[in-house]
Design brief:
heterodimer; A: 2 domains; four-stranded antiparallel sheet; 11 helices
């Protein structure tokens, strides 16, 4: 659905996006991650025809964004990192204005606006002035605006920034609902744990270059990160360490406060062996929990955090 | 900036205590901005052009040496007068421009609330803003001092006049700066601050003395009027001083009481305004940070209950459906903000008041003269229309960028020309009420047989020229600049260059060649066209020749039509440039 080939954007001597290659399949949620100034927003702006690339090409639904700008705009819904609002319009008027801007016929507009208001749970606010809405409500309104023309692709630049936890959860649920509706979503965020929960794929970008692209599961071997398991035993930490260290599949066992952190050798992950070994060794096992690879860890490992 | 690095001079002058670190910070920032240098260059350039024009007009040397000497002495005085008045007016214009962003810059940068959380007092904040900008004006004024000194040495201009004029200029600039700062705390939009400051200064220093002169014409002689108002109006005071400098024997001696009284009056006024601004600036910061009421809200307690939350529940206004082109609908339907309404109503109120005063008091019309009364109204309405169009056209685009709604429009399938059409509708809607009185005035007096029938098409052509030209240039500058204030300023400067500087340069160049200029360079200037309208259509108007042809209504209308077409052509170029910049500058 989205294809980027050797995309480059230069601002004078600064290369914001450097030969970026990316492919996002239809119906996927793609998380775009990178430190500040990495080139995320520039890439997104090129995709939504707000900027022209210096070189390379980008396609949305098979359409070249530089040549078929108007057609691309009909297929894409873009939510910038800071959503501007018209102070003097009401919520319904605001949405209908954009519906009209997208060329939706007058007789269809009311139903469409009511539909997106319902989807974004803003029906009760339709007569409210846009500037009177809270930040969370404004973000939801932004999503409603993005959906007004029923685009196939949604490009959302940090839609959850500045929101409280409840509002973030609401936005997350809304995105899941949109995925169920078959939308392709490209989303950038600094709240990495949230992307982890909703994204099918992630792309980590730094200095305008993609340093990783794929599923979260694919990150682990790519980074050489070994699987870890947390183990808590009732008594006898030392005995447990001794038993586990003797296993050929285990690289190391470390005490981390109340539990033990067990690291497997590369390519080895057989959680069952730990439980069997400990129980057979007479150690009372309280719990055993595989440690998830956090996107934050991958982000830190893959990026140097150097801003242009 | 070395003066700033060496902190002791500032400590010695008590500046640090008075302004905190703001004076230092603002000067550093100004030093890094290209526009500061552009301003200084523009000031020097305009000053040089102005001096050149005065020189050409003043120096017509006879052959005899004795006569030459007398003529040079007179020329020196005339040149000095030109420089003094130039820096007096220019410094006020610049201070209004620079002061208009004093507080709004902090509001836009969201640093006003941050400043309020520091031990910096509101007084220091206000004084820091005022002093840093006055310092820059001081630098501008200082650029013309060497010239004045040279002219004084060569031409025998008294030192007293130079010192007095400098003092009057600086005190007036301080007062006008305080006015600008006061409005800057009240209003967020730069152009509104500029308009209100200019209007306030105009009303205080020009309109009130002028009306007083008219109303008390029978009881107050001109000399008494000048004596009285030289104690309160710097314009009148400077005029008196200038008259005395040019012809010391005429009996226009300025005693020391008048400058002292006038300067004290202005400084007291400035202090009062600054204290008010000090009180207001914290309110403004709270409003921005926490939704606290502003001064405007406090003036009308009913507004206090009208918070954002209650507004969201307001059931009074029905939802308006979008009909027709989206952009046109938005620009025509969006309610004007309270401040915009206030400024528009205030301007219309002043216009109606002026007409009422002029035509209600039988004493005024004969005092001004029949033709002059019409001309004053036509020029006033035209000036207000030009000012509003200059500001609004530059604002309608840049305001979208400031409120970050511009990218939202650009990602819709709306074509550039759809957006432009909507913006044109917005300009018409906002400026229409200001232009209408001019049209209504001419139509009414044409109906009353005061003007010939040609006056109506002529005024329509004049309005169209100005409106189309200023709208196009406003759109262009709105696209080029990120901030509304910069766009409005650039648009004003361009209008000044096209309608004032260029015709004057042409006029002086003609004079310098020893030829007679019949005013052809001013044929495209709306204010000069208004004069032509008066000359050719007013009952009993003074008909003459122009361009070698008899100056009649038909010929003048034709020249106005040509001028309008030229304006439209130039406007198209600006519109094309604006359209090309539409998708280049997204932020």
């Amino acid at each position: 659905m989205i294809e980027i080939t050797k995309l480059t954007k230069r601002f004078g001597s600064l290369t914001a996006v450097d030969s970026l290659d990316l492919r996002i399949e239809a119906g996927d949620i793609f998380g775009f991650i990178g430190p500040n100034g990495a080139g995320k927003t520039t890439t997104m702006r090129i995709l939504v025809t707000l900027m022209e690339p210096t070189s390379g090409a980008a396609f949305i639904d098979g359409l070249d964004v530089t040549k078929k700008g108007k057609d691309v705009r009909r297929r894409v819904g873009y939510m910038p990192d800071f959503m501007g609002v018209y102070d003097d319009l009401k919520v319904f008027e605001y949405l209908e204005f954009f519906a009209a801007a997208f060329g939706i016929e007058y007789r269809k507009r009311k139903a469409i606006v009511e539909g997106v208001l319902e989807l974004t749970d803003l029906v009760s606010k339709q007569s409210a002035a846009v500037d009177s809405l809270s930040r969370g409500m404004q973000q939801r309104l932004g999503l409603a605006r993005v959906l007004i023309h029923d685009p196939k692709v949604l490009i959302l630049d940090e839609p959850a920034s500045g929101l409280d936890p409840r509002a973030r959860i609401e936005i997350r649920e809304l995105l899941r609902e949109l995925k169920r509706m078959g939308k392709t979503i490209m989303i950038s965020s600094h709240i990495l744990s949230e992307l982890e929960e909703i994204c099918d794929q992630v792309g980590i970008i730094e200095h305008g270059q993609l340093v990783f692209g794929g599923t979260i599961e694919e990150i682990r071997p790519r980074l050489g990160l070994h699987s870890k398991v947390r183990v808590k035993v009732l008594d006898g930490d030392e005995q447990a360490i001794e038993l586990l260290t003797a296993l050929p599949q285990i690289e190391s066992v470390e005490s981390a406060g109340e539990y033990l952190s067990v690291t497997f050798r590369e390519g080895e992950q057989t959680d069952g062996i730990i439980a069997r070994t400990l129980v057979n060794g007479g150690v009372d096992l309280v719990y055993l929990q595989p440690e998830q690879l956090k996107l934050d860890d991958a982000f830190l490992k893959l990026t140097k955090g150097i801003v242009h | 900036m070395s003066i700033l690095r060496a902190g002791w001079p500032l400590n010695l002058a008590g500046m640090n205590r008075l302004t905190g670190p703001l004076f230092d910070k603002d000067l550093r920032v100004a030093g890094r901005r290209r526009r500061s240098y552009a301003l200084r260059c523009a000031y020097v350039l305009v000053l040089m052009t102005f001096i050149g024009s005065v020189w050409i007009g003043a120096v017509q040397l006879p052959r005899q040496f004795a006569q030459q000497r007398i003529q040079m002495e007179l020329a020196a005085k005339i040149i000095t007068r030109g420089i003094v008045w130039f820096q007096f007016i220019a410094a006020q214009i610049v201070v209004i421009m620079t002061m208009s962003t004093a507080i709004s810059d902090e509001v836009y940068g969201r640093t006003l609330g941050v400043l309020m959380t520091t031990p910096l007092s509101s007084f220091q904040l206000v004084m820091g803003k005022l002093c840093s900008r006055l310092f820059q004006i001081l630098l501008l004024v200082a650029t013309s001092l060497p010239l004045l000194a040279i002219v004084r040495v060569l031409g025998g201009v008294p030192w007293g006049y130079l010192c007095l004029s400098l003092m009057i200029t600086l005190v007036t600039v301080t007062f006008v700066g305080a006015v600008g700062l006061f409005f800057s705390t009240l209003f967020r939009r730069t152009y509104i601050v500029v308009l209100l400051s200019a209007l306030s200064v105009g009303v205080l220093f020009v309109l009130i003395p002028f009306l007083t002169l008219l109303i008390f014409d029978g009881w107050l002689s001109e000399r008494e009027f000048f004596w009285l108002f030289s104690h309160v109006s710097p314009y009148v005071l400077l005029q008196r001083c200038t008259d005395h400098m040019l012809s010391p024997r005429r009996g226009t001696v300025v005693n020391i009481a008048a400058p002292i009284c006038c300067c004290t009056f202005l400084l007291l006024g400035a202090s009062a305004l600054l204290l008010s601004a000090t009180r207001l600036v914290r309110l403004v910061a709270l409003r921005r940070a926490m939704g606290q009421p502003t001064f405007m809200d406090m003036l009308r307690p009913s507004r206090l209950a009208f918070s954002a939350e209650t507004r969201s529940r307001r059931p009074d206004r029905k939802i308006r459906r979008v009909v027709g082109p989206a952009m046109v609908w938005k620009e025509l339907t969006c309610t004007l903000s309270r401040r915009q309404k206030l400024v528009t109503n205030l301007t219309l109120g002043i216009e109606v008041l002026l007409i009422g005063i002029a035509y209600s008091f039988p004493i005024i019309m004969p005092a001004i003269g029949y033709e002059a009364t019409h001309l004053i109204f036509l020029w006033t309405f035209l000036a207000l229309g030009v000012l509003f169009t200059t500001s609004v056209s530059a604002t309608v685009v840049s305001a979208e960028r400031e409120s970050r709604t511009w990218p939202l429009l650009l990602v819709t399938p709306l074509r550039n020309r759809d957006i432009l059409l909507g913006k044109c509708a917005g300009v018409l809607r906002r400026c229409g009420p200001i232009w209408l009185p001019l049209l209504a005035y001419v139509v009414t007096f044409t109906y009353a047989d005061c003007f010939d029938g040609w006056a109506v098409p002529q005024v329509v052509l004049i309005v169209l020229s100005a409106l189309v030209f200023l709208t196009a240039t406003g759109f262009y500058f709105g696209m080029r600049f990120d901030r509304t204030g910069e766009a409005v300023t650039a648009n004003l400067i361009l209008a000044g260059v096209v309608w004032c500087v260029l015709p004057l340069v042409g006029h002086w160049a003609t004079l310098a060649q020893g030829k007679w200029d019949d005013g052809r360079f001013f044929a495209g200037v709306p204010f000069a066209q208004m004069l032509l309208l008066m000359g050719t259509t007013l009952e009993g108007g003074d008909y003459g020749s122009w361009f070698g042809y008899p100056m009649n209504a038909a010929n003048v209308t034709f020249s106005m039509l040509v001028s309008m077409l030229a304006h439209v052509l130039i406007s198209l170029l600006f519109l094309v440039a604006a359209l090309r910049a539409f998708r280049r500058r997204v932020n």
